[in-house]
């Protein structure tokens, strides 16, 4: 038997019991992958992050991230929540650290005073334009709910498909078919604000209350679609989780050059909720 420390925090919010809850398991280097997956199922949150020693001198620490159903190379709210918590616990020194994960080495800036972290995503990627009708049908919407421009996949370490709809359609959507890694949103150009819902059922999470990785990809989509400038730095805000009674706020920025996104960041608050210890047998399955 081994004894492991853990913490629960709420991410992308400044109030308890809102935002996206996260489990952080410390000193996890002796756990097998199967044990990590079983612990993630036990917490049954959208993601659980495991902290390990880095394998390269360029990294401050290493992590592995699991949903209840699978392992992810990168995710935004675990990255933000873990960085702030490690600094608060004295396990790392800030304000600038590097996280090693499946998506590579990611720079993070931590503001200890305000309890926030800013994560720089990986290399932006973007796919071809997609037909909106099958996507709309998969979430119980019609062509009248479509706002455009064309949906396409985009990401900064983890790709999502982005579908722009009318404001009232965001609240009305109901998954009616096979849909995964889909970010459905309404974009307000004057406020540079997106009302977002993210559906990820294949990883064991029907809907996510705050998705930092999708927030990064949205910036790539916005630049590619011409809704944010193709040169320089642009900031935008995301509200997510309202329909789940877990309101979340994500502050984002995208840097573009020559009409293409070249880097993106997402910033969020972290609120401590609980901490404790768990007993882990030699095999958990």
Structure write-up:
The protein has 285 residues and is of the alpha+beta class. The protein has 2 domains: 2-120 and 270-280, Diaminopimelate Epimerase, Chain A, domain 1; 125-268, Diaminopimelate Epimerase, Chain A, domain 1 (Roll). Helices cover 18% and strands 42% of the residues. The chain is built from 5 helices and 17 strands. The chain has helices spanning 33-43, 76-88, 132-138, 167-172, 212-224; strands spanning 2-11, 20-25, 48-52, 61-66, 71-72, 96-101, 104-111, 116-120, 125-126, 152-155, 159-164, 182-188, 193-200, 205-208, 232-240, 248-257, 260-280. An 8-stranded mixed β-barrel has the order 1-2-3-4-6-7-8-17. The longest helix is centred in the first third of the chain and has 13 residues, at 76-88. It is globular, with a radius of gyration of 18 Å. The model has no long low-confidence stretch (mean pLDDT 95).
Q: What is the annotated CATH architecture of the largest domain?
A: Roll
What is the 3D form?
globular
Q: Report the sheet-strand fraction.
A: 35-45%
CATH topology of the largest domain: Diaminopimelate Epimerase, Chain A, domain 1
* Largest beta-sheet characterization: 8 strands, mixed, barrel
Mean pLDDT: 95
Which series of helices and strands comes N to C? EEHEEEHEEEEHEEHEEEHEEE
Give the CATH superfamily of the largest domain.
Answer: Diaminopimelate Epimerase, Chain A, domain 1
């Amino acid at each position: 038997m081994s004894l492991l420390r853990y913490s629960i925090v709420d991410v992308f919010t400044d109030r308890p019991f809102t935002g996206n809850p996260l489990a952080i398991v410390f000193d996890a280097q002796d756990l097998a992958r199967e044990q990590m997956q079983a612990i993630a199922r036990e917490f049954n949150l959208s993601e659980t992050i495991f902290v390990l020693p880095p394998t390269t001198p360029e990294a401050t620490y290493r992590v592995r991230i699991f949903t209840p159903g699978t392992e992810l190379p990168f995710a935004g709210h675990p990255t933000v929540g873990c960085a702030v918590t490690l600094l608060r616990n004295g396990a790392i020194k800030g304000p600038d650290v590097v996280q090693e994960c499946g998506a590579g080495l990611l720079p993070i800036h931590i503001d200890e005073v305000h309890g926030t972290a800013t994560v720089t995503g990986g290399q932006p990627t973007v796919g071809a334009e997609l037909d909106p009708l099958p996507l709309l049908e998969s979430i119980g919407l019609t062509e009248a709910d479509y706002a455009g421009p064309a949906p396409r996949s985009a990401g900064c370490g983890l790709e999502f498909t982005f579908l722009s709809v009318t404001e009232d359609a965001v609240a009305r959507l109901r998954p009616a078919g096979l849909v995964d890694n889909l970010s459905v949103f309404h974009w307000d150009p004057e406020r540079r604000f997106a009302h977002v819902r993210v559906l990820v059922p294949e990883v064991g999470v029907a809907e996510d209350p705050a998705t930092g990785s999708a927030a990064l990809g949205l910036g790539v989509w916005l630049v590619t679609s011409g809704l944010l400038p193709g040169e320089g730095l642009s900031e935008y805000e995301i509200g997510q989780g309202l329909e789940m009674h877990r309101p979340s706020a994500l502050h984002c920025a995208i840097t573009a050059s020559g009409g293409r996104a070249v880097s993106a960041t997402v910033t969020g608050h972290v609120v401590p909720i609980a901490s404790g210890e768990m007993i882990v047998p030699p095999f958990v399955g």
